[in-house]
Write a structure and sequence with these properties.
Shape of chain B: globular
Radius of gyration of chain A: 16 Å
Helix content of chain B: 40-55%
Distance between the termini of chain A: 26 Å
Oligomer: heterodimer
Strand content of chain A: under 5%
Number of strands of chain B: 9
Shape of chain A: globular
Number of helices of chain B: 10
Largest interface: A-B, 18 and 16 residues
Largest sheet of chain A: none
Radius of gyration of chain B: 18 Å
Strand order of the largest sheet of chain B: 3-2-1-4-5-7-8
Number of helices of chain A: 10
Chain lengths: ~200, ~270
């Protein structure tokens, strides 16, 4: 990734209302190590882990059962390293779904969530969860899936990212997070990061 | 052994598959009765779409190598490739159709290896065993009509590495001792059937993933033929897999393939 582009995006965030980086989505939570790698200053919201909302009881893992609350619960459990059996089952199911159904993912997401904005937001949130799980489990299959998602031009729009960040669009924050985290992990792998 | 107990059928991804030709010829030379070869048609929009969705732009490279270049895709190198193997064994056939001309073996063309015509032919032939040399997923109806089952040689060490690009995945994960192949029975899952033979493959200096894959093919031919003979002779030992002992892998993203190549290069550096 272009370092100048990253810095400009981060400066845009620094100038924004910080509350946008927190609830309800916590798009930048738990990014301390990644930001240090890019030599970018942390914000309070990048260090705070999302507090779990009233615990959401998750159904059997399936894309069609995925909700915004469910994704937040999964991320929260990921960071807190709790309920890992459930987190792993969901991560595997969602990863497999994205891999096998990549060509029809947009269509299936439209059937799942109403409106283009909701589709994009939830799929980017899903990518964030898969990346979080990748780091938790040190399982590069999840990075593989996120890289394929980031190749989808209807989902990731880097040319419009800075403008979207200026508007405080949560989807843009998710997008930036995914781009930073994938780059961070790829560089670690190049440096010989040992995997589990 | 009764004659019928050495009847096998072979499943092929295309009429030009050198791997299919090698396997079928070696089976015949061992006295196995190849009763039919099922071949997927190439000019098949549904197949092209399905493979493109799975492989992306890599499909173009695959078509270029396997269908257009064919033998010319293999380097003149010391490492044994399927082309070297065919020459060494004196196998001159280069088109599955030649099995019909030379041996009178029926070649059954289909859009999909699970087509009703395939099932109907199997019901007539009643083979003792099926041998899979590529061509997509095999479903229950075909599995059910192949006697003892269908053998596949997977280019990964099972149960650890199921799915696609498992050579690359083992290298990326730094598990260099787990690069190899497995002959197994096919079942409804992806690479989940009972194990028969495992063979590790050493990584050599100066080799890239392409050359490594080229080395796999003749070894896969040897392993699947040996497994087939073991099964037909009743001496094969089947080992069931536990799903929790492995993971399913998917087509590797180009950025990760580059990393895997770098790791392979660094092994002997």
């Amino acid at each position: 990734m272009d370092v100048v582009f990253i810095r400009e995006c981060w400066e845009t965030i620094l100038r924004q209302e910080q509350s946008l980086c927190g609830a309800p989505y916590f798009p930048l939570a738990g990014m301390k190590d990644c930001l240090a790698d890019f030599d970018l200053p942390c914000l309070p919201c990048t260090e705070a882990l999302p507090a779990a909302p009233a615990a959401v009881s998750l159904p059997a893992p399936a894309f069609r059962a995925l909700t915004e609350e469910g994704l937040l619960q999964l991320r929260s459990d990921c960071y807190a390293r709790t309920n890992l059996t459930i987190v792993t089952a969901w991560a595997e199911a969602l990863m497999r779904f994205c891999e096998v159904r990549l060509a029809s993912l947009r269509k299936r997401a439209r059937a799942q969530w109403k409106g283009k904005a909701a589709v994009r937001l939830n799929l980017l949130h899903l990518a964030v969860f898969l990346m979080d799980y990748c780091l938790l489990a040190k399982d590069m299959r999840f990075l593989n899936t996120v890289l394929k998602l980031s190749d989808q031009k209807w989902l990731f729009k880097p040319k419009k990212l800075r403008a979207a960040l200026k508007k405080g669009d949560p989807a843009a924050l998710f997008e930036l997070r995914v781009l930073l985290m994938t780059d961070y992990v790829l560089r670690r792998l190049e440096e010989g990061w040992k995997l589990e | 052994m009764e004659t019928g107990m050495r009847n096998v059928v072979v499943f092929s991804p295309s009429r030009f598959s050198l791997y299919t030709i090698a396997v079928a010829e070696m089976l015949l030379r061992q006295g196995v009765d190849v009763k039919a070869i099922f071949v997927r048609r190439l000019l098949n929009p549904a197949r092209f779409l399905g493979e493109f969705q799975r492989d992306g732009r890599r499909l173009m490279r695959k078509v270029w190598r396997k269908l257009l270049l064919r033998e010319k895709a293999y380097p003149i190198a010391k490492e044994e490739t399927i082309v070297h193997f065919l020459k060494k064994e004196g196998i001159l056939l280069r088109d599955v159709e030649e099995f019909r001309k030379r041996y009178g073996i029926p070649i059954v063309y289909c859009s999909d290896l699970n087509d009703p015509s395939v099932v109907a032919t199997l019901q007539t032939i009643k083979p003792a065993l099926g041998v899979f040399t590529g061509g997509g997923l095999i479903r229950e109806a075909v599995l059910a009509h192949c006697g003892m089952g269908i053998l596949n040689c997977h280019s990964g060490m099972l149960p650890r590495y199921r799915g696609m690009d498992v050579i690359e995945w083992a290298i990326l994960e730094g598990r260099f001792q787990e690069v190899g192949m497995t002959v197994h029975f096919m079942d409804r899952g992806v690479d989940t059937g009972d194990l028969l033979r495992l063979r590790r493959v050493d990584l050599r200096p100066g080799e890239d993933i392409r050359r490594l894959r080229d080395r796999f093919e003749p070894l896969m031919c040897q392993e699947i033929v040996a497994a087939c003979l073991d099964v037909l002779a009743g001496r094969a030992q089947r080992t069931p897999q536990r799903l929790e002992d492995g993971k399913q892998y998917f087509v590797m993203h180009p950025q990760l393939i580059r990393l895997a190549e770098a790791r392979l290069k660094a092994i002997h550096a």
